[in-house]
Amino acid sequence: MQSQAAPQPKELDPLVVNAARDSGTVLTSKDLEFFQVESVADLSGIAPGLFVVNSDNGGYGDIISMRGSANTLFFSPPAVGMVVDDVPMGEVSSYPAGLLAMDHIGVYRGPQGTTYGRNGAAGMIEMTTPRPGKNNEFFMSTEYGSYDSWGASLRTGGPLGAGFSQTLQLYHQERDGFMHNTTLGNHPDDRSISGGLANLYWKPTEDTEWRLRILAERENDGGQRLSRLVSPDPFEVASDISGESVIERQQVSLHWTKEGAWGTLKSITAWQNWQLDPSVVDLDLLNTPVNGMSSRIVQDQKIWTQEFRWESPEDAGPWSWRTGVFFMDQSSSGDTLRVFGGPSESINYRLDQWNLAAYGRASYAVNASLKLMAGARLEYVDTHIDRTKTSPFPPPIFPVHDGMGECYISPELGASYVLSESMRLFARSAIGVKPAGFSAFASTPAQASYDDETAWTNEVGAEYALPANHLTFSLTGFWNRIHNYQVNRPDMFSTDYFTVNADQVTSLGLEAEVKWQPVDGLTVQAGAGYVNTGFDDYQDPLLPGVNYDGNKVPFVPEFTGSLGFRYDFPNGLYLQSSVRLTGSTYFNEANDRAYRQGSYGCWDAEFGYARQGFTVAVFGRNLLDEEYYTYINSQIQAGSPGDPQVIGVRATYEF
Known about the structure:
By secondary structure, this protein is mostly beta strands. It has 1 helix and 40 strands.
């Protein structure tokens, strides 16, 4: 839910590619406006190697992959971690789907466990909201568009006196649904979201800062956007149940920063509560009041985290470092009721997990050209499950009461070499670990547990920069060998999901990014990522003798990319346009073509006027009205169609 002033011409921000920080993409607020990024899913294609399978349920059930490694729908740990203002998120299902107004977003590829308290076995998304400036600032934005969509946001920031300062964001967005229910005569996927973020800063001395951060948000949606795959119109459904999804989140965190000649000390204490109450879905998507199928899920997740971090000062000489300790206590509980034409089954579960980790990364400049880097993460993860299930169907269901505790170590080595004033080479090798755990939706106790996933990741690349020509380019190649890949496995005999392990997966690919200002007023940005992720050794856990060796890993497109330009005219008018591309994607391990989304592209554009803090613009998203699915559920033969064409007008004022 971006609410920023329109971008103004400026020097290009460099791509971030170095041995101290890994290959990554840093998107400023102007970059987010450039590509009309409004949600986490919109980052797909803009940051090479990153892709979000969007189930259109407020983030619940989303799958985020990086270089071929992904979480499963509900219970496996995230492959791609997320932190917002240094506050770590929990599981991907509880990640925010929309975006606050951002100062910048960093997307860092490859294992990040040696840099962050929260583990990111395949990568990390780091979001940073604007801090207060030296003067009071005020931003206001409103927009209206197709499907009676409208939104308004307010953002302020600045000093309060006596060493205090503040930032505040308030926002509301809503729209009518894209779907048409022919049975109920309504739009089942109406959407609305309201929330606010407040920060209070206090600097009692020049080298000490305290920060209190409070966020509250409520997302009141209709039903999950689903239609039957056989439907001639993906935006038409004949369900007798409208569906519902209500998500609330609250966060409170206290941050302390102390700077000195010895470096910077930080403490981040955070408490978070996320509630899904309820999520109601019609499983047959038909008008079958007598023998209908439906699902109702209520889920709650509470997280408490504490991190202490020590970072080197900027003038530390040839050495630089970042190290810390991290503790997380996470508790998730849920109730699920599924109705199958009269008979019903229910699941009640509680998953408790606590993590304790020590991490660190240090780099040493051997000379003006060569820099070496090494790091490691040591983590202990303790997990417990208590689950009961009642079902009228055989076989008998027994309660699951189990626990496990494992210790993991994740080392890394890297180097960068300045080949010339314009080119730098880099290489990195690291281990990324996704811990073992439990699936609460498994049909049998034997299916409830899964093993840890371990990835040996390797990358080499080059960064090329010509500041005088306003050109920056990077190219990275990677090769990952993943053992015990955690796979989302639907039970073909029920509506259950659980996590299993595929013995061996190989993922390899290329990523490229370019930013260029060929003439005054014109900016061109592009990114592309190719990934080939396949099963080397994977036996079907339910079908003896069936294996998927050589098949593509599901939920991972083979290609993502983006290309866009913006031209600022001298009189304040501007024109920008971009295309986001997604390659073919399979949604099950068997690679059935019925559950495959082919390649597609979405064209967006914006034309506006910006002058003296005021901006007015006409925008369009998916202007060619491309039809595609963002998620396909093979169990219920249904999919979530992507957003149709949307056109609107936006006005922003800042002073």
